[in-house]
Amino acid sequence: MGVRQTTILVILSFVAGLVVASFAGFREFIPGLLEGAWVTVRITVQGCLLAVVMAVIAGIAKMYGPWPLRWLAVCYIEVFRGTSALVQLFWLFFVLPHFGVFLEPMTVAVVGLGLNVGAYGAEVVRGAIQAVPRGQWEASTALNLTRMQALRRIILPQALVAMIPPWGNLFIELLKSTAIVSLITIGDLAFRAQQMNQTTLKTVQIFSIVLVMYLAISMVITLLMRLLERRAAAGLSRGRVS
Amino acid sequence: MLWDWGYTWEILPVLAGAAIVTIEATLVGFVIAALLGLAFAILRMSPSAWVRLPVGGLVEFIRSTPLLIQIFFLFFVFPKFGVTLSAFTAGFLALGLHYSTYCSEVYRAGLENIPKGQWEASIALNLSPWVTFRDIIIPQAIPPVVPALGNYLVALFKETPLLSAIAVLELMQTAKILGSENFRYTEPMTLVGIFFLLLSLISAAGIRQVERWLKNRRG
């Protein structure tokens, strides 16, 4: 799907959403669910930022770091990829206070999901850097750039383009995993849905709206990533630009 | 004391029992995901747009909404339509349905890799579409994508703790109950984490083995 098709789809689904929202059966739930959606969006954005930072650090440390750093990065990646996101959240939420570290539930959510997705992202970063042709490194050496300069000025800008599509998928994975923060008492979209379900028992309406809301947020992410991809690829005369 | 070994040995058998439920849910869920995924992949190749587009839309929809909400949907909404599912059934159905959409993408990659000549030869031999799929296409399309399917088996396994949200007595729920009974979360939660880590690492090694075997077999 190109940028234009995605934009049209997003606009169409928002119009459809508004039409559905105007029906009496749905209207009463919208304000409360929108509040929950706002919490979901906040956690998603902050979690994504943390994930990108962690992924770049861990990915580069695993490839170029001195051995203690490399070992640490491998441990981080394997532990967070090898256990469930929910187990990690519960661990941060229930076990850390036992060691004297008390975190706000919101912080637990952002840190837990950010670290989890960051571990997957580290492999994306590594793959994208390795996909940059060797000649680029050799040319940088020939131009007397230091390794750090070469990485920052030559390699990373090229790797970035290859990273964007897999990062789009990871951001959507992160959005979907935010639903589990409702299990550690945060009032996100999934939490509001359950709460309203218990008080009104209008299960069908509530969960239908919630599914559509998640779909809308994920489509916005897809659209933004498409735009970013087009922008990042603009300077490079490589591949297909749509 | 930070870590109580006596308590650890006491809860280990209980957790081991719950681990069996987790593994059961994983296996049943994955069988559904593998079969339904193949069906989705084949339907998305249908020549008729009336089949292709709705199935494609459904797959995208399931893939972009959270598994937790889908579990709730099956558990809370289906009874309104007269289909009451037990927590365990709703759980493995939701897992299977969610991961079938991922599997369908994997199968699609496998199916698209089959050279066009194979289809044309099947038509030349006057094979029906059903026989073509069963005897010609699927036997060639599946083996190369087995490692990718294996990755989703591990991913599905790691999502099973979500079933604790509808009170299926799997590993996570059991650990939570043990934690709240004894006011000690450190040991059960850490053990659950270690269990998942160990099984994921073992299965990742297994998948690499299968990958190598497939590569050698193709020569």
From TrEMBL, chain A:
- Species for this entry: Tistlia consotensis USBA 355
UniProtKB keywords? Amino-acid transport, Cell membrane, Membrane, Transmembrane, Transmembrane helix, Transport
PANTHER family to which the protein is assigned, alphabetical: L-CYSTINE TRANSPORT SYSTEM PERMEASE PROTEIN TCYL (PTHR30614:SF0), MEMBRANE COMPONENT OF AMINO ACID ABC TRANSPORTER (PTHR30614)
What family does the entry list?
Belongs to the binding-protein-dependent transport system permease family. HisMQ subfamily.
Per the record, membrane topology reads: Multi-pass membrane protein
Which Pfam families does the record associate with it?
BPD_transp_1 (PF00528)
Q: Which GO terms describe its molecular function?
A: transmembrane transporter activity
Q: InterPro entries under this entry? A: AA_ABC_transptr_permease_3TM, ArtM/GltK/GlnP/TcyL/YhdX-like, Ectoine_EhuC, MetI-like, MetI-like_sf
Location comes to: Cell inner membrane; Cell membrane
Q: Which residues cross the membrane?
A: 7-26, 38-61, 203-228
The reply to whether Cell membrane figures as a keyword in the UniProt entry is yes
Q: Establish whether keyword DNA damage is in the entry.
A: no
UniProt GO cellular component terms: ATP-binding cassette (ABC) transporter complex
Tell me the CDD domains matching this sequence: TM_PBP2
Record-level GO BP terms: amino acid transport
Protein name per UniProt: Amino acid ABC transporter membrane protein 1, PAAT family
- Where do the ABC transmembrane type-1 domain residues begin and end? 37-225
Traced from the root, the source organism's taxonomic lineage reads: Bacteria, Pseudomonadati, Pseudomonadota, Alphaproteobacteria, Rhodospirillales
TrEMBL record, chain B:
Q: Write down the Pfam families for this protein, in alphabetical order.
A: BPD_transp_1
**Entry's PROSITE patterns?**
ABC_TM1 (PS50928)
User: What are the TM regions of this chain, as residue ranges?
Assistant: 12-43, 71-95, 189-207
Q: What's one GO-annotated cellular component?
A: ATP-binding cassette (ABC) transporter complex
InterPro entries named in the record: AA_ABC_transptr_permease_3TM, ArtM/GltK/GlnP/TcyL/YhdX-like, Ectoine_EhuD, MetI-like, MetI-like_sf
What family is reported? Answer: Belongs to the binding-protein-dependent transport system permease family. HisMQ subfamily.
Could you give a GO molecular-function term held by this entry? transmembrane transporter activity
Its name, as the record gives it, is Amino acid ABC transporter membrane protein 2, PAAT family
**Membrane topology recorded in Swiss-Prot or TrEMBL:** Multi-pass membrane protein
Domain ABC transmembrane type-1, chain residue ranges per copy? 19-207
Q: What are the GO BP annotations of this UniProt entry?
A: amino acid transport
Keywords from the named record: Amino-acid transport, Cell membrane, Membrane, Transmembrane, Transmembrane helix, Transport
Localization per record = Cell inner membrane; Cell membrane
The record's section on PANTHER family has: L-CYSTINE TRANSPORT SYSTEM PERMEASE PROTEIN TCYL, MEMBRANE COMPONENT OF AMINO ACID ABC TRANSPORTER
Please state the protein's primary subcellular location: membrane
Q: Does the keyword Transport apply?
A: yes
